[in-house]
Amino acid sequence: MKVPIFIKQVLPFLFLFSLMIFITIIIDYLLHYFHLVFIGRYLGVIGTCIIMVSFFYSLRKRKIIQSGSPKDLLLIHEYLAWIGSVLLLVHAGIHFNAILPWLAVLLLLMNVASGLVGKFLLKKASLALSSNRQKLQLSGVSEEEADKKLFLDTITVDAMRKWRVVHLPMAFALGILSLLHIVTILLFSK
User: What is the 3-state secondary structure of 3-52?
Assistant: First the structure.
């Protein structure tokens, strides 16, 4: 029996995204439990720096820098962005008192989700869809009948192909919000 793309590809993605949230909650809980909440303030700086380092991949991809393997830099980008996002979520905490932090955390979560779609889902899902289509056609199923049988898988893969349209503008908006946050902290901190 063919395992649907949703179960084979989307559920592992949901697990990794949920793991990020779970780790954030555990770290936040431990900081509160041991009365070390002040550390969260510094995790924002560390998380931001880690995410900024992860952008070397984007610079290499756009040929702004020439050094480094794009494949290696992509892997580094993925891991550093995930770790930096956890630190930023701990920094934000669960007690927001302004619109900017709510918006920034929402954008951060959506950006991480769209990045995970690009990393974990799209390539594997496209390959699985192509493989399933070939298997059906080799077993004598017509192209039209194969399309009917793979309709939901095709819709799933087509929706995932739009990940970059979401990911890049959100990363830019998140950067602007982060810059505004940093400037306001520098201007109004005591």
Answer: CCHHHHHHHHHHHHHHHHHHHHHHHHHHHHHCCCCCHHHHHHHHHHHHHH
Distance CA 33, CA 139 (A): 60
| Position 94 pLDDT exceeds 70 | no
Euclidean distance between CA atoms 86 and 98, whole angstroms: 20
> What is the pTM assigned to this prediction?
0.74
Distance CA 82, CA 109 (A): 10
Find, among 117, 112, 113, the residue nearest to 47 by Cα: 112
33, burial (CB in 10 Å: exposed 0-12, middle 13-18, buried 19+): exposed
With 90 as the cut, is the pLDDT of residue 118 above it? Answer: no
Q: 47 is in which domain, residue-wise?
A: 5-188
Question: What domain count does the chain have?
Answer: 1
**Helices 163-188 & 99-116, crossing angle to 10 degrees?**
150
For residue 52, what are its two tokens?
A: 């900024």
